[in-house]
Amino acid sequence: MTRAARATHALKALPAPVRWLAAPVALLGCVVLLLGTWGAPPAPVTPTPRAKEVPYCEALARALPQRLTGHGREHSDSPYVVIWSSSPRTVLRCGVPRPDALNGPQALKSAPEVNGVQWFDEPDGEGGYRFTTTLREANVEVSVPAGAYPNYADPLPTLSDAVKVSVPVWNEPLPASASGSPAP
């Protein structure tokens, strides 16, 4: 007996109500699986700021707007993560580690200044951009996914204003061995 014949024989051996419910139950299982994986985007990784960065990050969280270019602020479980409900959503994290790319000789060539705050920008690998402040007492990272705004830099002026009043410029002297930019 072939495999197909055995399956048909096994299915015919089941009572009629079970056979009638098999397809709807399988379909319902597929829908539940799809909806379960199609839910809310994953929560952003919560940074662990250094002790001296905590007051700056807390002040920044208070200074950030409730609306960012027309998108409302969402609830976050961390005081160091702020999310705006752009679709896809924009995420700000305070107290992140300094990006390794900032240690190279080309680092500040890709660091535009917006409203007195310098931002290092790098592609996020998915069509959007990740901006990280440079030369500030706490590193602030903003993830702007592709399609969130007409121009990927649209949220930076508003965010720069909040950063400027909350996170002071890094003013420690450069280490003697530093050849590039300092690492806060």
Summarize model confidence as the mean pLDDT: 81
| Count of β-strands | 8
State the helix count. Answer: 4
First and last CA, distance: 73 Å
Radius of gyration, in angstroms, nearest whole number: 25 Å
- Tally of discrete structural domains: 2
* Strand order in the sheet with the most strands: 1-2-3-4-8-7-6-5
Largest sheet: 8 strands, antiparallel
- How does the overall form come out from the CA principal axes? elongated
Strand content: 15-25%
Order of helices and strands: HHHEEEEEEEEH
The helix content, as a percent range, equals 25-40%
Low-confidence stretches: 174-183
Structural class: alpha+beta
Organism: Kitasatospora indigofera
Protein name: DUF3515 domain-containing protein
Write the layout of secondary structure elements.
Blueprint lengths: L2 H11 L2 H22 L16 H10 L3 E2 L2 E4 L6 E4 L5 E5 L18 E2 L2 E7 L5 E5 L6 E5 L11 H11 L18
Antiparallel strand pairs: 1-2, 2-3, 3-4, 4-8, 5-6, 6-7, 7-8
Helix pairs in contact: 3-4
What structural keywords apply?
184 residues; alpha+beta; 2 domains; eight-stranded antiparallel beta sheet; 4 helices; 8 strands; elongated; disordered C terminus
Summarize the structure.
This protein has helices at residues 3-13, 16-37, 54-63, 156-166, and strands spanning 67-68, 71-74, 81-84, 90-94, 113-114, 117-123, 129-133, 140-144. The chain has 184 residues and is of the alpha+beta class.
